[in-house]
Amino acid sequence: VQLQASGGGVVQAGDSLRLSCAVSGRAFSTTTIGWFRQAPGRDRKDGDFVAGITWKNEYTDYTDSVTGRFTVSRDNAKNTVYLTMNNLKIEDTAAYYCAARKPRYGMSRRNDEYTYWGPGTQVTVSS
């Protein structure tokens, strides 16, 4: 399984961005995908959970600081998961990573429970 996040950029506070996570592999439709972020200077394995979507029933979960502003969704036909980020804040500045659990595993907020990771995409929010 390979993942590739894209869609990051430099925006102003209050703007919106949509990140995409393209996932290779035939098991995508049975894979839970999570989004994590890490501030500059921190290691990826110390990244914070942002949002996730399961393969079954497309259950979603969000960390409190993004609830109501971010939306995670998936398109199984395109093997892609999206993270739509509205009303971005300066504190949302980070490298964003998408990660996949092993097939048929459910939601988790723990980054050590995600097996597959892709390169991150940088989101910078300025005032």
Layout of helices and strands:
Blueprint (H helix, E strand, L loop, with lengths): L2 E4 L2 E4 L4 E7 L9 E6 L9 E6 L6 E3 L7 E6 L4 E6 L8 E7 L15 E2 L3 E6 L1
Parallel strand pairs: 2-11
Antiparallel strand pairs: 1-3, 3-8, 4-5, 4-9, 5-6, 7-8, 9-10, 9-11
How would you describe this protein?
With 127 residues, the chain is an all-beta fold. 0% of the residues lie in helices and 45% in strands. The chain is built from no helices and 11 strands. Strands 2, 4, 5, 6, 9, 10 and 11 form a 7-stranded mixed β-sheet that branches. β7 (70-75) and β8 (80-85) form a beta hairpin. The protein is globular. The termini are far apart. The mean pLDDT is 94.
Note the gap between the termini.
37 Å
What's the helical proportion of residues?
Answer: under 10%
Q: Uncertain segments of ≥5 residues (pLDDT<50)?
A: none
What's the total count of β strands? Answer: 11
What portion of the residues fall into strands of 2 or more residues? 35-45%
Number of helical stretches of at least 4 residues: 0
Quaternary state of this entry equals single chain
The major beta sheet can be summarized as: 7 strands, mixed
H/E series:
EEEEEEEEEEE
